[in-house]
């Protein structure tokens, strides 16, 4: 069964993970976020509870 032979696929997987970890990931992490977090406190709105007719 060729699926159980890791010889051709292990090297391919290792090279792809090294490429992702060393080249692609730092480039992706260098982007700035489009919506940076702000130091404003979130406002909470006051809500009224629903009055259920059977209580």
TrEMBL record:
GO CC terms: mitochondrial membrane; proton-transporting ATP synthase complex
Membrane topology: Single-pass membrane protein
Pfam families assigned to the protein according to its UniProt record, in alphabetical order: ATP-synt_8
Positions of transmembrane segments: 6-24
Gene Ontology biological process terms, A to Z: proton motive force-driven ATP synthesis
Stretches the record annotates as Disordered: 35-55
This protein's UniProt keywords: ATP synthesis, CF(0), Hydrogen ion transport, Ion transport, Membrane, Mitochondrion, Transmembrane, Transmembrane helix, Transport
Compartments in which it is found: Mitochondrion membrane
GO molecular function, one term: proton transmembrane transporter activity
Main localisation: mitochondrion
Transmembrane recorded as keyword: yes
Family per similarity comment: Belongs to the ATPase protein 8 family.
Protein name: ATP synthase complex subunit 8
Organism lineage: Eukaryota, Metazoa, Chordata, Craniata, Vertebrata
Gene transcribed to yield this protein: ATP8
